[in-house]
Structure formats: structure tokens, C-alpha cells
Amino acid sequence: MLNPRLSTLPEYPFQRLRELLDPIDPPAAIEPLVLSIGEPRHPPPPMIAEIFAASADLWGRYPPGDGTPEFRAATAAWLAARYGLDNGAVDPDRHVLPVAGTREALYLVSALAVPRQKGGRQPVVALPNPFYHVYGGAAAVSGAESLYLPAGPKSGFLPDITLVDEKTLERTAMYYFCSPANPQGAVAGLDVLKAAIELAREYDFVLVADECYAEIYDREPPPGALEACKQLGDGFDNVLVFHSLSKRSSAPGLRSGFVAGDEKLIRPFKRLRNYVGPQVPMPTMAASAALWSDESHVEENRRLYRAKFDIAEEILGGRFGFYRPEGGFFLWLDVGDGEAAARKLWAEAGVRVLPGAYIGRDDGSGVNPGSPFIRLALVDDPESTTNALEKIVKVL
Ligand SMILES: Cc1ncc(COP(=O)(O)O)c(C=O)c1O
Fold first, then answer.
1. Which end of the chain is more exposed for a tag (fewer CB within 10 A), N or C?
2. Final residue of a domain: which of 277, 294, 311?
């Protein structure tokens, strides 16, 4: 009765975390500190509520699947400015598609890009290891073989698709690539992006560039895949970029993002999505257009994260392989045994963190590259962050 592919779905990381920690009582009379979930908790910009109030009449309209002209224009203009693209390179009507948060689109892109067979054999979906769990779920349900590319300290915490053999590349239908990376915060340079794009074109697979942390960075704005396309001079062939307001504007509840890139992919993606129906409501699109047109709230957001990385550097510097991530809002700490550390932190200090193993996979060599790590999301206020990090030092 059930689709047998469901049995290949990787175990859901947060279900595993519940199973690990729910049987354990944290110390009584202390407020638990939750760093396990990457949910931004800075105050969302007031303009969201203002625009919702002013556009209440729009709740009475079915939203168009391809968005409003204002939304498409704002996102295309933001892309051009952010990545130094040529005037008119991103055509709002041909290259951009609104999505109800990037998560659903990162899942659904597998229905767009993974055929039944590639090169006469089972297709391959390449993904970093460890990885954002949605990539693994999408790859499993698409019927593809998941190819986990190690993204540990040896490769600068990024996967390297150029190491994959030719026969496997011939079967590759899609490559999930995340920069800045969740969980490691590593940022891919333009050379890495260009090499991935060149391979995507040579072997005709889709590069799914998840850039939803692109606006949360420490010093330099991370380069993007469309910028790499510009340097290669070939338009956006084989490339889709995924951007979100969840992190940029600290508005994960808004459920608003967009996909941009290759027109030959955007057009059928639009068509497919019209059947599925994950439209973005009209008031949300109005607020989103305003958010993509404003930089001041994003600068403030980055300032808040930088202040917390300063705190982390002071408290953790020199311990647990601490490094200051170039982007994103996670710490990826080498504690030897991530699962044991998560258990101990919850039991002794009421601090909830995610064992790295839960977002990694045994890559066939018997090693899960996430196992030694814990992931900490620095999404709370500075006081709670300080409190949690001091407890981590004390307990571990
Ligand atoms: C790497 C990565 N991609 C995509 C998402 C999805 O974000 P949203 O659906 O809120 O845009 C997340 C959320 O945590 C993430 O960590």
C-alpha cells in the first residue's frame, strides 16, 4: 500500500533527538536552553506586521503561482545588486519563482530534476555529508541513489564534486550544495562554485545551490552561484539558487523565499508547482517585496549574530576545535562523541544541542563524519547564549 521508497527515508534528526533526550530529566528549577533548532529568534522587522495590516483585503485572493510583478521585480533587483550581475541578466518574469520557504522547494526540485533513469541506470543525487535533512528526504523519495560527499575538516568543511568518478557523474541528476553551509558555516569561493557549474553542464545535472544563509555572514558577503555563472559567461544553464527570508529577515514564520536561475528549469518548475499548490499568499508577497528591498534590518541582524560569535569566541576559543564560521549562525564543535555530549549537556545543564551524527550518514566506509560533533544554533539573545556556552564549557 505504501510507496516502498518511504522506507529509505533517512531517520528524522529531531525525532532521533527526542528519542535520545526525552527519557532524561534535565535538572529541575532551571529554564532549558534550546540550541538544537536553527530557528532565528531575533525580532522580525515591524514592517511585516504593518504591511499585513495594510493589505488585509488581499487575503481574499488566490495568489498566482508565479508571484506578483512587485515580488519578482524586488527579488531580481536584489540578486543583481547582491551578486553584481549585469543589468537585465535576471529577468523577473523568466528567471525568478516565489516559494513558500525554501524547504518545500528544495524538496520539490527533486520531482523536477530526477528522472527515472539517467545514462540507462538508477540516477544519483549528490549531497554534502553532513547535510540539511530535507536533501536526504527528497533524494530518497525520488528513487535516486544518494551520494554522500564528505564535508569534514580535510576538505575545508565543503563537499568536492570534482572528486566523483566519471561513471557516477554520468548518472548524477542533481547536486545539493549549501554555502554558507549548514552546519559548518563554510563558504565556497567562486572557484568551487565554477567547478561545480562546469561539471553540471558537462554531465547535464542540476546544481541546486542552497544559499539561504547567504546574508548571515561574518566579514565578507559569500559569493553566489549566479555570480559564478556570470564569470563563466554562459547564462544560468543547469543552475538554480534558493534564497529565503527566514534567516535574512529573521522571519521563519513568514514562509517566504524564492528560486532563481536557468529559465529551462524555472518554466517547468512553475508548471509543476501549479499542480502542487505551494503558493505564497498575497500579503506575504507584499511584505516580502519590501523586505528584499531593504538592507538596514539585515545589517542589524548580522550585527546581532556577530556579537554572539564574539561571545562564543571568548568563551570557547581554543576548545572543541572552535572556529569562527564565515557564514550562517551555527557552531560545529568537535566534542569527540556528539551523542554522549548531547545527553550529558541535557542531563546536567538543561542545554539541548543536536548530535552531529543525526545530520550525517555513514558514507559506506563505516564512518559518519558528523559523529564527533555537536551543532549549536546561536539564535537566542546574548544572555541566553552566554549562559548556554558557559554551561557547555563547565559540563564538557
Ligand atoms: C540549509 C538550509 N536550507 C534550507 C532551509 C529552509 O529554510 P526555509 O524553508 O525557512 O526557507 C534551512 C532551514 O533551516 C536550512 O538550514
1. N
2. 294
Task: Confirm whether 49 is domain-assigned.
Answer: no
Task: For 127-174, write each residue's pLDDT tens digit.
Answer: 999 999 999 999 999 999 999 999 999 999 999 999 999 999 999 999
Nearest-atom index, ligand 1, CA of 255: 10
| Ligand 1 interacting residues, C-beta cut-off 6 A | 38, 101-103, 106, 132, 178, 182, 210, 212, 244, 246, 252, 257
- Range of 83's domain? 60-294
pLDDT in tens, 7-41: 988 889 999 999 999 999 999 988 999 999 999 99
Q: In whole angstroms, how far apart are CA 244 and each of 7, 100, 101, 215, 260?
A: 30, 9, 6, 9, 11
Helical (H) or strand (E) element with 82? helix 69-83
Q: How many domains does the chain have?
A: 2
135 and 200 in one domain? Answer: yes
CATH number of the CATH domain containing 383: 3.90.1150.10
Q: Which of 37, 244, 250, 330 to mutate to test the pocket of ligand 1 (most atoms within 8 A of CB)?
A: 244
Of 246, 255, 330, the residue with max ligand 1 atoms within 8 A of its CB, to mutate for a pocket test, comes to 246
Q: What's CA 313's distance to the chain center, in Å?
A: 24
